[in-house]
Design a protein that fits this description.
9 strands, two-stranded antiparallel ribbon, alpha+beta, three-stranded antiparallel β-sheet
Amino acid sequence: MKLNQIISVEKGVKSRAYSELTEFHKVCQKPDLFSGFSKTYRKRDEESEDLPPEQKKVQFRVDDILKKVAAMLTELMDITAAKDHGNMNAKADLSVNGAAPLLNGVPVTYLLFLEKQLTDLRTFIEKLPELDEVDDWNRDQATGLYKADPVETHRTKKLQKPIVLYPATAEHPAQTQLITEDILVGYWETVKHSGGIPKPKKDKMFERADALLKAIKFAREQANEAEALPQIVGQKIFEYLFSD
């Protein structure tokens, strides 16, 4: 049987075995189910009341449960042993898009580990901060940061000055009012800095993570094509454990 077939079958066997074992465990915590009795009544004389016999049947036998547990777990132990022994020989090369292998003869268990790591890394890369594409960025070799082109803005200051609303006459003084004007007083030159990553570079990393993850899954499936030889384990375990 192929290793991937063993893995598929093992899930069902494990689920069934654990379910049945749980039920037997519950049964074994009810001693009353393992006990019974039979009673017959003998009256003292012919004039005494006659009563029918009474009986309570034993519903479970420990011997029967042990046989069922042994059979059930033997199947699970044997199929898991076949899987684990098969994993020892299940290997594949890791190659991306048909290129020369990045890694040779990688065990299937390590491929499973890599798959988990690359899945997490893919999520990590997706959340990396990007440089704002509104600005033009250049690498500052001195700081290692990205630096945008300078942007100049004006600095103004509000000043009040009087204006004449009505000039003075012989009868009335001039009427004036204070108004506020924005007066240019200087210039700001702003240079943005960023520790982010250019979007094209991030996109490339994301594409490579996808390609590598796809290659790992392919290698894992290829490794799981290895033969898994039958193993006799459970019988030996329970012959020792349950022997008289």
